[in-house]
Amino acid sequence: MALSDELSKFIPKDFGKKSKKGVKGGAASVAGTTAGYDKPTKDTSQKNKSYPKSNTLSADISSVKADAGATASTGNASGDVDSDQRLPVNHHIVLSSGKKVVSTLTWDAAGDTLCSGTHSGQMNLWDFKTMDGSFQPTRTMHPYEEGQRQQIRIARFNHDGSSILICSSADPRAKLLDSSGRVVREFKRGDMYLLDMRRTVGHVAPLTSVDWSPKDPERFISSAADSTVRVWNCENAAGQELVLVAKSDVGKRRPVISSCAYSVDGSMIGMSQVDDGSLSLWAANASAKRPTHQLKNAHASGSDISFVFMPDARGILSRGSEDSMVKLWDIRKFNKPLAEVSGMHAAATESNLALSPDSRHVLVGLGRSPQGDGGGAGIAVLDTSDLQVRRRLDMPFSSDVVSVCWHPHIDQIAASSSDGSIGVFYDKEGVRGGALLCAGRRIARRQVSEITGPIITPHALPLFKDEPSAAPTSAKRRRAAERTKPGVPVYGHGSGGNIGVNETQHIMKTLMKDTLRDEDPREALLRYAQVAESDPMFIAPAYGDNNKPVFEKDSDDESSTEQPLKKRK
């Protein structure tokens, strides 16, 4: 009987198609998969994410923490590894761009090219498709002239990776470069003698930040130390379309705008001010005199504030350089931060924030504390819900971390340092692209012709001797021409005994015009008629009747007047 019961388990009781029944644990497994860092997929729950409404700050933070705890418990119940352990930092490569501070990093849309800018005015392009194991830059360029090498503050690839927008620390004009690093367009400078910043086309003070519009690929914004944020059309060098003028209660001077950025949907423009540490939001489609949202003293006065918008266009993450704090804001309740964390020391004024592809984490580049009481340099990984430090990443270099960038598609992290090094972190199981394309390549061998020199045979037959090349002579002439090349105009402060040229000299040349062509010559001569009559010192002796005329005497015999020819001795 027992044997028949065992066999009956394998005998089918019914036939036909069976209906699938739902499993209760299915939702938990899906939630656990979404919580990880396996693939750089978009988290649909972030689009409808809203910060909790409450009357007190403690209630806001507690509710957000409860939501985060529920998500974490669901992920652990599904059997997934914690998401903090799935950051793409298992492997890395180190790129060298010199010895100066690497102030900015930007990635193209495909993740195949990385662009870096330094405080020496040098920009490097790293093409991972063609780069070998030596990790040398594909192209090195200086967008500014030899005598005007300035610190590159911000560089941004556009959405399709065909153009690069840059701004420097001492130039009020933004420059547009193509994907190979050549300057395509330089935008217009404003009139520094106009007091109303709305009436001048262009900035009159050095730029501080630039950002592309997420909607229109031909439009971008720029901020400067002249209290304005301007909207430009990159198809026209003088294509200024909109001017936003900020005001400050601190002193009577113009406030300095430290950074500007578009919201994710492109409906708002955010800007931060250095003087009072304020944050303000403006409508992006209309010229307004006042911001729609403004928060005074968001960070300490004198702080260079960098910020990023959350994908839901309601949350803002900001970072201050003076107070070393990172804060989370909700624009619906813009008077108090939802969460904040201290001890985030900035290594430079260009130190920024970088969101993860699913917007659940934010990277903060850290520098050494001036007092020496904090930790060393590295990257802090914060949770965007409550700004808790989930992990701290150590760098392959010992200097401070300045700029960080997290590519949303290939899921790789790039971090720059203050000693010219760039670390690119990746995971071998990630998307094929970026550093994965060149990490395993060998260093290309040099050709034999590049190593060995020319073969010299002084005792060869005349038929087989090489004729002397004209290259040394042409090179000598070229060097002589370069030595005698006239000096280019020196802009700014003079150097090497050369006097600098400023705009005042050009303006005075246009004001002091030569009006000699407009004068009437007859009227100019008649001015001296009265002087000639009253004082005929030079006129009367020449044309008076007192002088006796002296005429040449004519001779009939022309031969008598001729001198006899002298005989040659």
UniProtKB/TrEMBL annotation:
It comes from Coemansia erecta. InterPro entries: WD40/YVTN_repeat-like_dom_sf, WD40_repeat_dom_sf, WD40_rpt, WD_repeat_GAD-1. The keyword Ribosomal protein does not apply. Residues 47-56 have a biased composition (Polar residues). Residues 15-56, 464-499, 539-569 are annotated as: Disordered. One of its GO terms (cellular component) is site of double-strand break. Residues 26-36 have a biased composition (Low complexity). WD repeats lie at residues 95-130, 200-233. Keywords: Repeat, WD repeat. It comes from the Eukaryota. Gene3D superfamilies: YVTN repeat-like/Quinoprotein amine dehydrogenase. This is WD40 repeat-like protein.
